[in-house]
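To assess whether the prediction recovers the assembly geometry, we first specified each molecular entity separately, as shown.
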Amino acid sequence: MEMVRHLSEKGISDRRVLDAMAEVPRHLFLETMLDYMAYEDRALPIKCGQTISQPSTVAFQSELLDAEPEMKVLEVGTGSGYQTAVLCAMGLRVFTIERQKELYDITKPRLERLHYRPKCFLGDGYRGLPEYGPFDRIIITCGAPAVPEELLAQLKVGGVMVVPVGGEHQEMLRIVKTGDGPADTLRQRYGDCNFVPMLEKLDYGGK
Ligand code: SAH
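The predicted structure of the complete assembly is given in tokenized form:
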């Protein structure tokens, strides 16, 4: 498939990521008006002023996770559910949180219809899901002003968090938790990126 060829050319080599992205129908995660652009490498608007990440970003974050099937993964920022579906297609056990009720209400049934089986939560990703942790992997798909410490606490020792950190523009960080102390992390930097901001508290859209 054209999109997957493009991703390999961009340097994505994780077979599980490429296979998952070949399988997941991205056009079904978009408004019908935009679905003709689904397989171009671009971010597109979804509801609530949010965006579906561009395919190369989804592939890059998924590859940085370095995950094995059956691992427990926490995703912050369900959005359209596309990244969620890719993680499910990689064979991971996915727990995903979205703070906008309107998106949660659309995306949860969408994933069910497509037979992906993540556990979807409406909540504030900053708090994570302590009752379901600890997680092998954590992926954050919105720009965090700083590394969310509460989430690091929900990561297993040896686990990996992939998170864009910064204000208007962010830097992609891959954080390996090397021990139980707050300073026990190894941080690797993977260049600039652009995500919608990670915000606090729930958004019920005035309903
Ligand atoms: N992975 C998604 C990306 C959507 S954009 C996709 O490919 O479609 C990022 C999402 O993060 C938005 O839907 C936004 O509402 C959500 N978000 C922002 N701050 C959050 C928080 N604190 N907790 C949970 N979700 C959050």
